[in-house]
Design brief:
416 residues, alpha/beta, Immunoglobulin-like, Rossmann fold, 3 domains, six-stranded mixed beta sheet, 17 strands
Length: 416
């Protein structure tokens, strides 16, 4: 609790002290008494306000915060309802006369004070307001800040109520079409030079009790030290890996994540098992980055949750190292027959070489960022697209900030 005199309290206290000094100097008891009364009023008010402290441990008030929707996509509005209750008369007395203010991260409040509606009833105060989720991430909300002043307005106390909540903000996504005839059609597999997977080719997953032992992949199981089985996905629903190459420049990061996430969700909703690879080892398991399957409840949310904590690399060198690591992960987890969809930037020689090997066994598609405002990046993007196409990828350029649907349709059109 922070206890402090108000401007009126400072003025009353200063006046009382001046009257006491003046009375002593003039030998006037009446002035001394009057000054003492002023100081006693300020002191007594401070004691009463401290005793009524809403955040104290003595019969604390109950705070329940409801945030809906949570998680939410960037750009959407979130409704917040904070209910403060007290079941005993003492708590109701402490609840009366309180002023409420809520704290929120700048990414939710835009740096402006939150405008809330306060409704009061017997033993209950309801504070409701809305915030706008501006950016992807995990942003704090609360605790509630309460202020109380005494009857004369000379002393104010400020304390906090309740716990801090967290609002999870997913990236902005748009619905994208998934024309399966273009992505997994047999003519395209031949043109790309990728081997046609048999009906047994599929992603690997951990063995679960009851799985058919005939589907155990013994070679991979021996290498990993634990049983792995082939997923029972149909050949037409091949696994999809979305390869994410985040830029080191801030303005393009969110656009890149939104495009990659929209692509991943489109493929997931079409029935494919999907995973996102950004080359950060902390996101991996001993068997590689796990796939999200549509047969599991909450698959869409699980995929979106993996994008919340994505961070941009500190520089070009780190970005290229991440991409090479992700490409090697595709090779080490036997990505043969996968569809690899990349959202990439201009690539260095090492990254181009790593991705060229991916196209030997997987079907590769890539959207390459090309910033027209930077001539060097634009030339490098053109060179990257040409190199990927020579390696057997389908690739196209896209300018950061352009509509995600346009980028996706341009990529699909590159197959025709």
């Amino acid at each position: 609790m922070l206890l402090r005199p108000t401007l009126r309290g400072w003025a009353l206290g200063a006046t009382g002290l001046a009257l006491i000094l003046l009375g002593i100097g003039m030998g006037s008891r009446d002035l001394v008494r009057l000054g003492a009364v002023a100081l006693v009023v300020v002191g007594a008010s401070a004691g009463v306000v401290a005793w009524l402290d809403a955040g104290g441990s003595r019969r604390p008030l109950t705070v329940h915060r409801l945030v809906l929707p949570n998680p939410v996509h960037a750009g959407e509005r979130v409704g917040v309802e904070v209910r403060i209750t007290s079941s005993d008369p003492s708590g109701r007395a402490r609840l009366a006369g309180l002023k409420f203010a809520e704290q929120a991260a700048t990414e939710l409040s835009a740096g402006r004070p939150l405008r809330a509606r306060v409704q009061r009833s017997s033993g209950v105060v309801l504070v409701s307001y809305g915030v706008d989720a501006a950016r992807r991430g995990r942003w704090p909300l609360g605790p509630l800040v309460v202020t109380r002043t005494d009857l004369f307005g000379t002393v104010a106390s400020t304390s906090t109520l309740g716990e801090q909540a967290e609002v999870t903000v997913w990236p902005t996504v748009v619905p994208l079409p998934t024309p399966s005839d273009v992505l997994i059609g047999e003519p395209d597999r031949v043109a790309l030079g990728a081997r046609s997977p048999s009906t047994d080719d599929a992603s690997l997953r951990d063995y679960h009790e009851g799985d058919d032992l005939r589907r155990v992949h013994w070679r991979s199981s021996a290498r990993r030290g634990e049983l792995l089985v082939r997923s029972d996905e149909r050949a037409g629903m091949r696994p999809v890996s979305v390869l994410l190459d985040l830029p080191s420049r801030g303005p393009h990061v969110e656009w890149t994540i939104s495009l990659a996430t929209s692509i991943a969700l489109a493929m997931l909703e079409a029935g494919h098992p999907v995973r996102m690879l950004d080359g950060v080892s902390e996101h991996s398991t001993v068997t590689g980055v796990p796939f999200v399957h549509t047969r599991h409840d909450g698959a869409r949310a699980a995929l979106l949750d993996r994008t919340v904590d994505l961070e941009a690399p500190r520089g070009t060198t780190e970005a290229q190292a991440r991409l090479v690591r992700a490409a090697h992960l595709l090779e080490s987890t036997e990505a043969g027959g996968e569809i690899v969809l990349g959202v990439l930037g201009p690539l260095g020689a090492g990254a181009r070489s790593a991705l060229a090997h991916v196209a030997d066994t997987a079907q590769g598609w890539a959207i390459v960022r090309s910033d027209p405002q930077h001539a060097h990046d634009h030339r490098e993007a053109e060179f990257t697209v040409a190199a990927l196409r020579r390696a057997g990828w389908r690739a196209c350029e896209a300018s950061p900030g352009e509509p995600l649907l346009d980028c996706w349709l341009r990529l699909l059109g590159s197959a025709r």
